[in-house]
Structure formats: structure tokens, C-alpha cells
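YM 10:42: Rod shape-determining protein MreD sequence, as discussed on the call
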Amino acid sequence: MNNSSLSNIIFFLVLIFLQTTLFNQIDFLGYLNPYIYIIFLVYYPYDRDNTIIFIFLSFLLGLSIDIFSDSGGVHAAATLTAAYLRPVLMRWSFGVSYDYHTIKISKTTFGQRINYLTLLILTHHLVLYSLEIFSFAHLVSIVKKTIFSAIFTLILSLIFISLFSKKKT
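YM 10:58: structure's back
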């Protein structure tokens, strides 16, 4: 096992721990629920040869959150959907850099990073709250929860990315 695999496993476990012990406890007015664990989808290295492994790990991440949160599979479905759509979202956000496999999230512009994170988070949250509420009668509630939680998750994700990214010397 190389150093990169070990760091991915540790990152995976730390995100599950933080989400289930700290961030699941935040529920402000029923609309602000940060789901910081989807940072794993951002930082997992992109490689077309490892797509199946990435999608499996994403499912396992969502399933782990579901098990600890007793949420019946909505996190697994939302994380799996976001992981499956990640190549499309990356191509739309990063363009040519993505097509030539030279993309590193820490080396992208701030605008590209915001665009990518926003698309990924909105995709995840829309699927999550649509499956959680599962009613067209509550469409306004789904949209409110998606938008407010996405904004909160985006802010926390940007803070985490800036804190834990390698500084250029």
C-alpha cells in the first residue's frame, strides 16, 4: 500500500468521524445541515482507470454515513449520484485542463473551484433532500433545504480546502 492510498483511507475515515460526531449535530432552523463528507469526492484523485473503485468508495462513504445516521440509504444514493456525475461536472467546470488529465483542485482558480464545488454540492443535496422528503407537495421545502444547506456546506468546504491544502512556497 503506497502513501497516497493510506492518506486516502485516513481522510475517508476522518470525514466519516467528523460528519457523524460533529456535523450531524448541526441543524439550525431545520434548513442548515452541513454535509462536509462530500469533500472526499473533491479530493479523490481523478483517474479513468479507477472509476469503479471511486464509485464504490463513494457508495461506501454514503452508506457509512447512513449507518451512523440511521437515514435509510439517502446519503448513499446522493453520494453515488454525485460521484457518477463528477466527470461531467469537472468537464463543465475545468474544461481543457480536465480533458488532458492535468487537473489538481489546489491549482485551479478560485472561480473554477467555486463553480465545481457548487455544482457538486447542489447535485448531492438535491438528490439527498428529494429522497429524504420524497413528496412533490413539499417541493418548496426541498428547494429551501437544498439551497441553504448547500451554501453552508460550500462555505465550510472552502474553509477546509484552504486550511488543508498544501501551501505554495
